[in-house]
Design a protein that fits this description.
The chain is built from four helices and eleven strands; from the N terminus they run βαββββααββββββα. It is mostly beta strands.
């Protein structure tokens, strides 16, 4: 796992503003293509969720305990850190980075300091402790992530939520859901 030194503590903020955006990935959300692109495909469970700020954006860093590995060199019980776009960033930090204090004229400094912005990408909910699923991952791919980090191949479509032991739900950017079987997942990496 990655030792995250600068975690954002969302509990110390009184107000939450939401900012929505959409990702643009060149990788289609087709299981076979995700399987080809991924360096690792695992079934796992989220054990910890942290919010960080990297490369000018809010990110969510979450630890996943590997339960099964279908592609790559991870083993059962390995604990890895996965980063995804979106998360939380203090409003003060966002204003300073974007140089757009003019948008908040008339807003008190106290209000700015007590507000956090929730950056929501593709309408995706934040991961939660205990969440189980299949993850199509890239290892050490983006240079702005810490050494050893994992990230998803294509955002929301690369993380399938466990519906049952053998059925997983893949959600795309339009919030459309599709059932995928464990057999299909295993075939995607052969």
């Amino acid at each position: 796992t990655i030792d995250i030194k600068k975690k954002i503590d969302i509990s110390k903020y009184d107000e939450v503003e939401e900012a929505h955006s959409y990702s643009e990935s060149g990788v289609p959300n087709e299981i076979d293509i995700l399987g080809e692109e991924a360096t690792h495909v695992i079934k796992g469970k989220v054990t910890e969720v942290n919010y960080v700020f990297l490369a000018g954006d809010a990110r969510t860093a979450y630890n996943v305990l590997v339960e099964e590995s279908y592609k790559g060199d991870l083993q059962k019980n390995d604990l890895i850190t996965v980063y995804k776009d979106g998360g939380y960033i203090p409003l003060r930090t966002m204003i300073e980075l974007n140089g757009d204090a003019f948008r908040y004229e008339g807003v008190s400094q106290e209000a700015i300091d007590s507000t956090i912005v929730h950056e929501v990408v593709d309408g995706e909910e934040e991961p939660y402790i205990g969440e189980e699923g299949v993850f199509y991952l890239l290892h050490n791919y983006s240079s702005f992530l810490p050494e050893g980090a994992f990230e998803r191949v294509n955002g929301i479509g690369s993380q399938l939520e466990a519906e049952s032991k053998n059925i997983f739900i893949q959600t795309d950017e339009e919030r459309e859901e599709k059932e995928v079987t464990l057999k299909e997942i295993k075939e995607s990496v052969e």
